[in-house]
Specification:
A: 611 residues, alpha/beta, eight-stranded mixed beta sheet, two-stranded antiparallel ribbon, B: 568 residues, 9 strands
Chain lengths: 611, 568
């Protein structure tokens, strides 16, 4: 157990200051407020909003929308997706719209720019819905400045509602940004749970409660309102938590799937670090989002059915009143308890801080399952890491195969012919690699690998090498069996995921457009063009012909070099005498581009092979 | 391994309990009782037309006692009631249903047929409504039968699955019925049976006819303390028998709303345990009111052991499913080896891979034998699995899978034939010696591919690398060689018959060539085919000429191999 600032990466002073600024309602008419009174940090405080429409907008049952639903947000949040699976993050539309207003305020960009220039830490903070805006602002900042490490930021929220789905959490972990988010949640605060219920179930209760939260002099709503709100929110939280727990526990009963068709579950999930305030000074620190979701339900259960009114009241008051007493009037130092190794959590109360959250054995089992799943994901990765030597062995073999053929017809053509024993050996190596990679992709599809995986440099490098070296063989194999005839072009019908995924990784890493790293598909384009050129009635796709030739010129010109990647995108073997590309080149006729470099190279190589 | 295993019975129960469909179903039953208390003349009512469509089956007032008799599907069929025959499959050709329930079903057959057709039609619309089918007591039994019948009409690759919720229903069928339902991969997930430990109805038939009835689907067992989901049929049976109450009618509405309130409460039932699985199971038993005291008894201990076994079984099943892709890739590697073996054997002095393997002169032939065995084991299992699927589901197998199987059959069956004839076997095809999975793979292919009148250009051009389309071609060659011997050494009668058969075979070969359905490898000098041809020329009456012999004499096999020969 370390000190608060060590565990959280932010000093107690700044947490308290964030809290004080967030709870201060002097600036309630501003979109945001900038505080520069600290010497090395700038606080940007977002104010909460008070109408139902400012919490829920759009058509989604939970006020949700895809983060790329507008052009500006598509540009502002390019990383908020899963890369291979191409799932786009879902966020709360109303909060996103509110943040759009913030970005349109020239002052916002200016203040952020100044802070970055001054090498100051920026702390985005807010209470309630203000915290939700702070989260979006932090993601926006990280997208803009995080990659080049030009600025540093933290997000500190107090009783904030959830804003994004599982993909946000997944993407933040992959980008290694998750640690910049710290959320303080009172054990009995209803607000962090509100987004787990569909608007239709709480619409009537929400308006008076929100008014009570934001307007100074609004009276406490009737008890029945509080009770209804509590019951509906918690019931939905319970359904969602149980549904998630079933998955964590490896449930195989498909009844759940059948039932899920009949109901709508909230898409929102926690992300970043959560600190649950128990109410007696203890601060419980967790960064496993699945475990946080379970805690959101289990820590707010009733002790007895007849306590419902009192608990409901407490759940509303806590949001407004408790953060101040809990965080400002106490020393936070030494009170943070870090909960890790969830999978070994004791199943009964044991005198540690988790007791103060009132966890039952059932709740503890769910936390264990959350820990176990994380552990399983790491184990899955270990398992494939162990296969690296086998992969490298096969890659080495294929590299030798390529080198051997470089002086002959080129490995693409040799493989397509399959005349020699070494062609067969290459095929076996291809299949071995395909097997391992397919396994990896299957795991990614099910999100069974750690979230970080698709951002790991060593895998991006290996994936790119694999793709460049082996995909031509897959293409050769595809066209060798003349599969293009009845099943369509390789790129449309035949391209395996094991090449699509690593291509997306590389494009993401280098901030390139989708499709821009398709160099390993070169031969597929050539084959398709050749097929069209050979077919007397067929028409050669002019655009594709240009693309292929320009591509060749470009790749050869600026030998694309990525740190650590051994295999080149294209080699001179493209121009070998028997190469499929040359067959095509001969037939292109008027579509032949007068690319000086291609011509020069061709003369070079033709001379070379003649002499 | 068991230490990090879980059982999610409590969590799935809580999910069921806190989500709407179960409550919607019960409300529909209440409403049905109001509008049609005796379930007459119609047994069911549509309570809600859409989103979801809710059909509630009523319960006729007659008593359930003495209604435990079962009737077998075969006697139903004899009675001209074969509407549930679709459930049967090869391994389970027969099953039994509760007679009373099927009687009710029969009595309303026309109305039910209309309902089914309407729901099937709805499932094909652009925005199909979800469907809940429900009923209490025997009404639930008929709801179960109807749902099974409805499932047969739905295309589940497009339509969403219906949900059947029963409340305190007696069981509807035997172990065979359960087996039949399980063969449909997703059907059992449509059935949710809610049973209170205060309700005597669900155990009625079981205690009167022990062992005859078996449950399928998920059971939500409820007590005053809580509820949990169970799937293991034996454990469910055991728990059902334990209810001992004389309540006549159970009000599930109250039970459910009570439990729903309790779901928000934290029960400090604490178990001082270390194993997650053990704790999961104990909390489940506590919830259904079986385990009251802290220290479990011997009986409970043995129950927990059996529950653990069930969980382990589920885990193994899951792992098996995830391993199947890996296995498929392994098979691809084996096939690549065979492909190479075939390629290497393509020399005049060897005569192709069939003859090389038949002569077994090389160490690599032994390896090939290994690959052959592994591939045959894999495909045998794979085909059996598909075959055991009920017909309507089996028909949907992937065409890709069938092509992989076809490629396998054409590559590997010749090796099997070589082994068979090398050991002096005869009549591979006609005497039932041909492995069944080859026969099935061939049969299924003819169901998918329509033969072409003339071979396409691409088919001709790729003939060089192709396999014989008829995977039994070499068996025919072997038979033909035996026939040649018969012409030489047999009696006059035998001679004549054998010669006729040889001529038939010769004609078959020629028409296969015309269709570019034979690999040019058969023309390799040392191949069994070329030897047959030599033998045939020796025994046939002279002078003799035929299309095949002319084709060979004119050395058209060269052009055939290149795909340029056009048959007249």
């Amino acid at each position: 157990m370390g000190s608060t600032s060590e565990i959280l990466g932010i000093s107690e002073e700044y947490i308290k200051k964030s809290c004080r600024l967030s709870l201060n309602d002097r600036f309630s008419n501003e979109l945001f407020h900038v505080d520069k009174s600290s010497s090395d940090a700038v606080f940007i405080v977002f104010k909460g909003v008070c109408t139902v429409e400012e919490w829920f907008s759009g058509d989604g049952a939970f006020g949700e929308t895809k983060i790329n639903y507008k052009d500006w947000s598509k540009e502002a949040f390019p990383s908020m997706r899963s890369i291979g699976n191409e799932d786009v993050a879902i966020v709360n539309q109303a909060f996103l719209e509110r943040f759009e207003l913030v970005t349109k305020d020239p002052n916002f960009g200016k203040e952020v720019g100044l802070a970055v220039e001054g090498k100051k830490l920026i702390i985005f903070t807010g209470h309630s819905s203000g915290g939700a805006i702070a989260m979006l602002a932090t993601i926006w900042f990280l997208e803009k400045y995080g990659k080049k490490n030009t600025g540093t930021a933290k997000c500190v929220t107090f009783g904030a509602p959830l804003v994004g789905d599982f993909i946000v959490s997944h993407a933040l972990k992959r980008e290694k940004w998750s640690k910049f988010f710290i959320h303080f949640v009172m054990r009995y605060d209803i607000v962090p749970r509100i987004m787990l219920a569909p608007l239709s179930s709480i619409q009537q209760e929400l308006a008076p409660v929100l008014q009570y939260f934001t307007a100074n002099d609004h009276p406490y709503p009737r008890d029945s309102i509080a009770t209804n709100l509590y019951t509906n929110v918690m019931r939905n939280t319970s359904a969602l938590a149980s549904h998630a727990a079933c998955k964590l526990m490896g449930n195989t009963n498909m009844l759940l799937e059948t039932l899920t068709n009949f109901i709508k579950l909230s898409p929102y999930r926690p992300f970043g670090t959560y600190i649950f305030c128990t109410g007696n000074g203890k601060l419980i620190h967790l960064d496993n989002p699945e475990a946080v979701l379970q805690l959101l339900f289990y820590s707010c259960q009733l002790n007895h059915e007849n306590e419902i009114e009192a608990t409901a009241r407490r759940c509303i008051k806590a949001h407004l009143e408790d953060y101040e007493t809990e965080l400002l009037e106490r020393s936070l130092e030494e009170n943070v308890v870090n909960v890790d190794e969830l999978e070994q959590l004791p199943l009964a109360s044991d005198g540690t801080a988790l007791d103060d959250l009132g966890l039952s054995t059932r709740g503890r089992l769910c936390l264990r399952a959350a820990g176990e799943l994380e552990k399983q994901k790491r184990k899955n990765q270990d398992q494939i890491e162990k296969k690296r030597p086998e992969m490298e062995e096969a890659m080495k073999g294929l590299r030798e195969y390529k080198t051997f053929n470089a002086e002959r017809a080129g490995y693409y053509n040799a493989f397509k012919k399959q005349d020699e024993k070494r062609d067969f050996n290459a095929n076996v190596m291809r299949l071995v690699l395909a097997g391992i990679w397919d396994e990896i992709i299957e795991m990614l599809k099910r999100y069974d690998l750690p979230d970080e995986f698709e951002g790991e440099d060593s895998w991006i490098v290996l994936g790119t090498e694999f793709r460049r070296l082996v995909e031509p063989l897959d293409i050769a194999n595809y066209y060798r069996h003349a599969r293009g005839e009845d099943t369509g072009a390789y790129m449309k019908k035949g391209r395996p995921r094991r090449y699509r995924y690593p291509q997306s990784w590389l494009e993401k890493k280098n901030d390139l457009e989708k499709g821009s790293c398709g160099e390993s598909c070169f031969w597929a384009d050539v084959e398709e063009l050749l097929k069209a050129a050979n077919n007397s009635g067929g028409k050669v796709d002019g655009a594709m012909a240009v693309k292929v030739q320009v591509g060749v010129a470009k790749w050869i010109e600026e030998i694309e070099w990525i740190e650590g990647i051994e295999d080149r995108a294209l080699d001179k073997e493209v121009f070998l005498k028997e190469s499929t590309f040359l067959q095509l080149w001969d037939k292109l006729g008027p579509l032949k581009l007068q690319q000086e470099r291609i011509r020069a190279l061709m003369t070079d190589i033709t001379n070379l092979s003649i002499s | 391994m068991t230490s990090n295993q879980f059982s999610s019975g409590l969590e799935s129960a809580n999910f069921v309990l806190t989500s709407d469909p179960v409550h919607q179903a019960w409300n529909a039953i209440e409403k049905q009782k109001q509008i049609n208390p005796n379930a007459e003349p119609s047994l069911f009512d549509e309570i809600q037309p859409e989103n979801p469509t809710i059909i509630a089956f009523g319960t006729p007032p007659s008593s359930l006692s003495g209604q435990e008799a079962l009737v077998s599907s075969s006697s139903l069929k004899e009675d001209n009631f074969a509407h549930f025959e679709f459930l049967c499959n090869k391994t389970n050709p027969n099953f039994s249903l509760n007679q009373a329930a099927i009687q009710l079903f029969k009595s309303q057959y026309q109305e039910l047929l209309q309902l089914k057709e309407k729901l099937v039609e709805n499932s094909k619309s652009r925005t199909p409504s979800l469907v809940i089918i429900t009923g209490q007591s025997v009404g639930g039994s008929v709801a179960t039968l109807f749902t099974l019948w409805l499932l047969q009409g739905l295309n589940l690759s497009k339509a969403k699955r219906p949900l059947c919720v029963t409340f305190g229903s007696p069981l509807v069928g035997d172990e065979q019925l359960r087996q039949c339902v399980l063969k449909f991969s997703t059907w059992k997930s449509c059935f949710l049976h809610i049973v209170s430990n205060q309700d005597p109805t669900p155990q009625l038939f079981i205690s009167r006819k022990p062992g005859a009835y078996k449950p399928f689907g998920t059971f939500l067992l409820c007590s005053a303390l809580g509820c949990a989901c169970f799937e293991d049929p034996d454990i469910i049976l055991e728990q059902l028998v334990k209810t001992n109450s004389q309540n006549q009618e159970c009000h599930y509405g109250n039970i459910l709303s009570d439990l729903k309130c309790k779901a928000l409460c934290n029960f400090s039932t604490e178990a001082k345990l270390d194993s997650s699985l053990q704790a999961c199971l104990i909390t489940q038993l506590q919830a259904i009111g079986i385990l009251l005291q802290q220290q479990p008894s011997k009986e409970i201990d043995s129950l927990i052991v059996r529950m653990k076994k069930h969980e382990t079984k589920l885990l193994i099943q899951k792992k098996k499913n995830s391993d199947s892709d890996k296995k498929l890739n392994e098979m691809k590697v084996h096939m690549a080896f065979l492909e190479w073996y075939k390629k290497e054997s393509r020399q005049p002095k060897i005569g192709g891979y069939y003859d090389r393997y038949r002569n077994q002169g090389n160490i690599s032939d032994v390896n090939v034998n290994e690959f052959k065995k592994k591939l045959m084991n894999y495909w045998e299992d794979s085909v059996t699995e598909v075959e055991n699927k009920p017909q309507i589901e089996g028909a949907h197998f992937r065409v890709r899978w069938l092509w992989a199987g076809t490629n396998y059959r054409r590559m590997v069956e010749p090796l099997n034939i070589a082994d068979y004839y090398k050991d002096g076997g005869k009549n591979y095809k006609s005497e039932g010696k041909r492995p069944k999975h080859f026969i099935l793979l061939e049969k299924w292919l003819t169901g998918v591919v329509k033969p072409e009148a003339t071979p396409s250009k691409s088919k001709r051009e790729s003939v060089g690398a192709s396999l014989n389309e008829d995977s039994c071609f070499w068996a025919q060659v072997e038979e033909a060689r035996i026939l040649c011997n018969l012409v030489k050494n047999g009696s006059v009668d035998e001679k004549e018959r054998a010669l006729q058969e040889l001529k038939n075979f010769e004609a078959d070969v020629y028409s296969s060539l015309k269709n570019y359905a034979l690999s040019p490898e058969i023309f390799l000098e040392k191949s069994s085919f070329m030897q047959w041809l030599k033998e045939y020329k020796g025994v046939v009456e002279q002078p003799y000429s035929s299309l095949l012999l002319d084709f060979m004499k004119e050395r058209n096999d060269q052009a055939y191999e290149e795909g340029t020969f056009i048959f007249p």
